[in-house]
Each structure stands twice: as structure tokens, then as C-alpha cells.
Please model this.
Amino acid sequence: MAVLVTGGLGYVGCHSVKQLVERGEHVINLDNLIFGHKQAACGSEVVIGDIGDKTLLREIFSKYDIDAVMHFAALADVPESVADPRKYYDTNVAKSLALLDVMLEHDVKMMIFSSSAATFGEPQIVPIPEDHPKNPTNPYGRSKLMLEEILREYERAYGLRAISLRYFNASGADPSGEIGEDHNPEHHLIPIVLQVALGQRERVSIYGTDWPTKDGTCVRDYVHVNDLAQAHLLALDALRNGHQTTEYNLGNGNGYTVLEVIRTAEDVTGRKINTVSADRRPGDPAVLVASSEKIAKELGWKPKYPDLTTIIETAWKWHSTHPNGYE
Model:
């Protein structure tokens, strides 16, 4: 049997592919290379193409004996989703429906879906549990929630079972230093901070220093990308063992402020990180921290890299040895 991974040349996707290959899975890696990198294939069989291309999808499902799909392929830039919502609903929802159509045509009825903490919107409870009210504040989060709801309906109607994994802040890199985070443009705090340490940026902007937190900066839950990947393998095993459709949060359960991230990066790199204060960004909550008790209890997931220093050390190993990413 084979596993089809969509977007498997991207950041979280390639780390999951690496773990799948290492445990002996046959991985078909479908990526359109808009955000992915061929150098991140990690031993998978790569097919270049789009998840909305039904002709290509039918060729893949006809050629390979696929039993499950890990679905990472998506657009994930929140400001862009506000400026161009049609693009996000087309890629994240309509093209995902095309993928589901072809899965059903070939009687493939297991999916692990890459969802997001953006499905929750402004948190009412912290740490955030899975049953927290869902009120996304942007089209990106709404597109992810829509697909979660579609997957629920597909189980009832067609017997297609899915596990949706809601990431909080994916971070770090594989300790080998062979693969890591390479986005252009970059929006995530830790790589931006490390780019300042490398002299590739002059400073990092701190969006608000008057939040109701211990040092006035936002608190976020950083979870190592390899721990996210491990959760995908646990979800795959659960589906193969008959697990029903559900959703899980993936976070450390520990929040760190922006200033704590910056100070830890200074300790790890031994370099000064220049900062500048900026206005708060609309829609930014003060604190976003996940409760991951459900997946810990039901699937036995336990983060291997929960410490912020370790997370940043692995990211620094990647960025310092690959200052231009995969180029």
C-alpha cells in the first residue's frame, strides 16, 4: 500500500514524509512547487502537479495502491486570505473537494487533514480545547473549518473517515539539519528572528507591547515540526485501525511571549536580535495556547521537543547551514 501526501515538499509536509519513509511506507508526494522544494523529497516518489487536477489525480490513484491521503496542500497567508478570499476558497476548499471526489471514485476512505488553530478565532478559554466555539476571523481559518465540517459530512454520507489536526505554531527543523523551514516571504516569528541573527534582516517587529501578558507581548504555543509529523503518523495508524472522524489540537500546552522567543534566540545564537515596536495587528489575540490532552489520551501523542530552547536550536542549525534555504 502507498500513502499519497499532498503538499509533501512543503515545511510540515516534508517532515512528515521523512518519518513515513523512515518507517518503510511507500510515499507518493504530490506538490505543485509553488511553496514546495524538490530537495525536500526525503526519499518519496514525487509527482509535480495540482490537487485540483482530477485527470492527474485519477492517474495517480489508478497507478498506485493508495490506502490513505495526508492532505497538507493549502494556502496559509492570513492577510492574503483577507485581500483575496476567492483564491483561498478555491484552493483550500474547491480543490480539496476535487481530491475527495477522486478518493471516493477509487474507494480510498482515509484522510489526515492539515487544519489550523485559525479555526477557533478569538479564544474564550485558554488552553483551547477541541470543543471550543469556532468563529474564524479570516477566510483562511474559515476555509480550514469548512473542510473539517465537509469531512464530518463525508463520513456520514460516504464512510470516508478523517482525522483533522489543528496546528498551533509549527516551528523548528529536523535535528539532522537536512530539511527545515523555507518560506518566501517568511511570516513566522522564529525564522524571522533567526534571519535577523544572520544579518538578513535589520530587525524584528514586535506587534504590540501592551498586551495583558507578563511582559506585554503576545503569547503563542510553539510546537516542533517533528512532533507534528509524529502526530500525523499516529493519526494514520489510528485510521487504519478503524478510528472514526475527529479533530485534534496540536500544541505544547505551554505559551511563550514574543520577547521570550527573542531572548532565547539570542542565547542560542550568541547574537543580538534588534527589535522595533509596532502597532498591534487587527485580529491578533493576546494569548493562543492549545490543550492537546485529547490526542495525548486517545493516540498517545507526546511532544519529544517541548522545550523552546531545543526548538530554536534545531531551527538555528537549519537556517545557519542553509541561509538561502534550499537554494
The first helix runs from residue 11 to 22. The mean pLDDT is 96.
